[in-house]
Amino acid sequence: MSKDKLKDVSTDVTWKETTIGGTIPYAGNAHLYKTGDWRSMKPIWVVEKCTQCLLCYPVCPDTAILINKEGKRIDFDYDHCKGCGICVEVCPFDAIRFYEEGKEEV
Amino acid sequence: MSIRERMSGNEAVAIAMKQINPDVVAAFPITPSTEVPQYFSTYVADGVVDSEFVAVESEHSAMSACVGAQAAGGRAMTATSANGLALMWEILYIASASRLPIVMACVNRTLSGPINIHNDHSDSMGARDSGWIQLYSENNQEAYDNMLMAHRIGEHSDVLLPVMVCQDGFITSHAIENIELVEDDNVKAFIGEYKPEMNLLNKENPIAVGPLDHFTHCFEHKRQQAQAMVNAKKVISEVAEDFYKMSGRKYELFEEYNADGAEVAMIILNSTAGTAKYVVDKYKALGKKVAVIKIRVFRPFPVDEIADALTKYKAIAIMDKSEGFNAAGGPLFTEVTSAMYAKGVLLPKVINYIYGIGGRDVKSTDIEIVANKLLEILNTGEVDSVYNYLGVRE
Known about the structure:
The complex is a heterodimer of chains A (106) and B (394). Chain A is mainly β and 106 residues long. Chain A has helices at residues 56-59, 86-90, and strands at 41-45, 65-67, 73-76, 96-100. In chain A, strand 2 (65-67) and strand 3 form a beta hairpin. By secondary structure, chain B is an alpha/beta fold. Chain B is built from 12 helices and 15 strands. Chain B has a 7-stranded mixed beta sheet, sandwiched between helices. In chain B, helix 1 packs across helix 2 (35-45), helix 3 (59-71) runs parallel beside helix 4 (82-97) and helix 9 packs across helix 12. Chain B starts with a strand and ends with a strand. Chains A and B meet through loops of A and helix 8 of B.
């Protein structure tokens, strides 16, 4: 789904151009709604501690843990991660740290 | 040729529904509208309609079922009164905001409490800001005719709003009067097919109806909904014109009766207009001229047209069959006077009467009190009291 096609539900659409009654005429566009800025806590992936056990992947409510073609987890999708911290809880290897947003370690 | 019959207002509405043959009727019985779904369920049982009748467990469910059916691309109808309408409240707003042109027969009854089954307008007046178009009917004929016009109004692409057709509980819903029905084929041709562009059953183009609408979009959708109500006024007039061509019966946004030469007027909704017409006819024979203005379309409120019509009067009594509890006047009074002020019609004297509450009988002698008061104001130019009660025991 391209953003172009979703013009009539975009955040700058006028009342004359938006869809009637709020109906969304295109399925499968949730990824275009960036929820990352809701986050107050931020998970940080510690690559050297990660064993690729993938326990974190299925528990993420926002599918914000990305998997590459080889089936390995890569970094977080911070556009959609809401910072719930479930992945932090399930990680047995302390490979995901959790910091207050904007105060993560450098 | 039209069909001459005699029947109650409820049966007239049910006959209109039979002729409309909607996809879904979902209703829960409540006095005095019970007969509408009761008659309709017999049509379903007899196989004379194709409709799915959903015998729901409450009015909240009735309106919810209508929302679902209409969103799925069907025509959905219901009927209710008073507390039934109140129980629909939450879903009334969802129906209008989702722009689903559901049609409802509202048989006006006093909204509890105190509990009372008789007629006043407190039920539909409470729903006046719910985004539904509201048409009011003086008698069984008007209830039937308004019902036949409702789909054409609500489903128009410039409107897409639900429509409530109101009539007075018992007074017209249960009184048997003569009526002229339109032939089935003509009704079918008049209302036409309902083919919404987007609907939930169209698997070629899946849609989401009623999604969460944040501060980023909700305001735009409400503005759009407000425009639909603005647009509805023109559509109501166009549909009335087409209806006139078919039936020979003419309907306007409001009816001005006995206006010729009259300097005073009463503004009334529903059946009391009939009583008022009887009184002003009698007065006319005595050389006293009093006009009756019967509002047919309350939502959208015909602000420009009412203000324009009122410029020629010197005194106006606005009659409310419900309280607004603003300590200053009923809802119709507030609408009319705000229309007058906004359009700069400041010369007529205005008074308000709250009347007929809880089904208190409104006799011709009650209307005479109003007419006499108006003629007195015309004579003296003085208004001693704006906010008045008529027919209450003092």
